[in-house]
Design goal:
The complex is a heterodimer of chains A (about 110) and B (about 120). Chain A is mainly beta and about 110 residues long. Chain A has strands spanning about 5, 10-15, 20-25, 30-40, 45-50, 55-60, 60-65, 70-75, 85-95, 100, 105-110. In chain B, the strands form 2 sheets. In chain B, strands 2, 4, 5, 6, 9, 10 and 11 form a 7-stranded mixed sheet that branches. Chain B has a 4-stranded antiparallel sheet with strand order 1-3-8-7, with no helix packed on it. The chains are: A mainly beta (about 110), B mainly beta (about 120). The interface between A and B is medium-sized, with 26 and 28 residues.
Chain lengths: ~110, ~120
């Protein structure tokens, strides 16, 4: 039973436009949500996070939105750059340091 | 500051063998977590160690075990390997196992890719 779902396996966006990556979850006990980016042959790197008590968090070109009633999370990247091409994982903290990850979305930014 | 180091990077084993993977966390980090990543799946949580004690455990069979040493380095062992154990095994460290998002950011190593033939 997948508690965190990323329903879009891939996304292609033009350079300079907005990239929107989506994530749905089922467990209302999750208290933090995180986005990680992963390049081939490297480990995931932390991008941005949001507490369950907030609905928005911004960090430069990256903004994460949380809709608790819909159990939906999204990551906006504006403007998108070719270097943003990677696999993006949504993750939720269950307890302690246990993170529950989605299957990932491959983002391709075309120049 | 050096990142999380995992060794070896690649490993090939045959069914029935056992394997030990190693993880050196970021200096000063006391929590080490292990994840398994298979094609099409996200990262699946294996277990977390903090101060040499297993704190959390995922839904994996007892063939998967781990330990942590006093210097916070951790090892993961898989016994009686099966074909389905072929995966990328990722280790992540964080400063503590406490609450608060800053403390909960996990920093990942590049992983060990295990192939079971």
């Amino acid at each position: 039973d997948q508690q965190v779902k990323q329903n879009s396996p891939s996304l292609s966006v033009q350079e300079g436009r907005i990239s929107i990556l989506n994530c749905d979850y089922t467990n209302s006990m999750f208290d933090y949500f995180l986005w990680y980016k992963k390049y081939p042959a490297e480990g995931p790197t932390f991008l941005i996070s949001i507490s369950s008590i907030k609905d928005k968090n911004e960090d430069g070109r990256f903004t994460v939105f949380l809709n608790k009633s819909a159990k939906h999370l999204s990551l906006h990247i504006v403007p998108s750059q070719p270097g943003d091409s990677a696999v993006y994982f949504c993750a939720a903290r269950e307890y302690g340091n246990k993170l529950v990850f989605g299957a990932g979305t491959i983002l391709r930014v075309k120049s | 500051k050096a990142g999380v180091t995992q060794t070896p990077r690649y490993l090939i084993k045959t069914r029935g063998q056992q394997v030990t993977l190693s993880c050196s966390p970021i200096s000063g980090h006391r929590s080490v977590s292990w994840y398994q990543q298979t094609p099409g799946q996200g990262l699946q949580f294996l277990f977390e160690y903090f101060s040499e004690t297993q704190r959390n455990k995922g839904n994996f069979p007892g063939r998967f075990s781990g330990r942590q040493f006093s210097n916070s380095r951790s090892e993961m062992n898989v016994s009686t390997l099966e074909l389905g154990d072929s995966a990328l095994y990722l280790c992540a460290s964080s400063p503590t196992s406490g609450t608060g998002v800053a403390k909960n950011i996990q920093y990942f190593g590049a992983g060990t890719r295990l192939s079971v033939l």
